[in-house]
Amino acid sequence: MSPADAVPGVPSPAARPRDAEQRPGPASPTPKISVRGLRKRFGTKQVLDGVDLDVMPGTSMVVIGGSGTGKSVLIKSILGLVTPDEGTIEIDGRDILRLPRGEREATRARIGMLFQNGALFDSLPVWENVAFALLAHTRGRPRITRAAARARAADILAQVGLSPSVGDLSPAELSGGMQKRVGLARAIAAQPDILFFDEPTTGLDPIMGAVIDGLIIDCVKRLGSTAVAITHDMASATRIGDRAAMLFGGRIIWEGAARDLLASGNPMVEQFTHGRRDGPIQMELRR
Ligand SMILES: Nc1ncnc2c1ncn2[C@@H]1O[C@H](COP(=O)(O)OP(=O)(O)O)[C@@H](O)[C@H]1O
Ligand SMILES: [Mg+2]
Questions:
Q1: 32-110+227-276 belongs to which CATH class?
Q2: What confidence score (pLDDT) does residue 133 get?
């Protein structure tokens, strides 16, 4: 699928809601995260084709979009796991792609991430997974002792509803829901001021999904973090998000209040959020 094919019906850049002219003026608070003109291509596939997105401090943004539209690539670009081809990514008003390496890494160390597949280290017990960032070595020395890290891991496990004994298990011994809780515990361990969640409820039953969403909301509130969650679970999107944005054809084609997702007035968003086969989005079916 070439990028040109991918965007029938996508408004021209001039009609997009998030024009450069609409950037917050000096009176508005600086966005926690501000992405402009982000482009990333893999081979011939233009995955991100000019993404513009602002996330205001202390708010939660949900990013929706079909499989393979580049949602994970977008947050991996902010995290530094993917290098974009073009564009800017500002955190607290500073373009992290152009910061000196040390400052860039320090900024990214303030981001906690719950990966799509949990991404726990199977060779480490749960408590070491949770305390991983705390045990990370700075200038050759761990930041805290192992005993202190272990006690801290028990506290953090309690915050996601797990008993300290779970800390001694291996990730492979846990159910899917428990693995998500441990992934969440690891994401919040260093008390980050930005949290990313990549499809936190995918693969869980609806009740466990609601439990995980509840924990996510509690953790984000407790830390006062700014959050970005990727999901295609509409129940989850409206629970977690204050704002929502839809990625399609490499761009953000709609942004609004998360509570409006089911009645946004945008035909592409409504086709997606109501799961309709017929509508303006047809490329995925023709492949
Ligand atoms: N490291 C990579 N190398 C090549 N292609 C990639 C890489 N990462 C992602 N892609 C491609 O980019 C597209 C978007 O991927 P992704 O962001 O994971 O989608 P999703 O919206 O489902 O999270 C997919 O076609 C995927 O195959
Ligand atoms: Mg993904």
A1: alpha beta
A2: 80
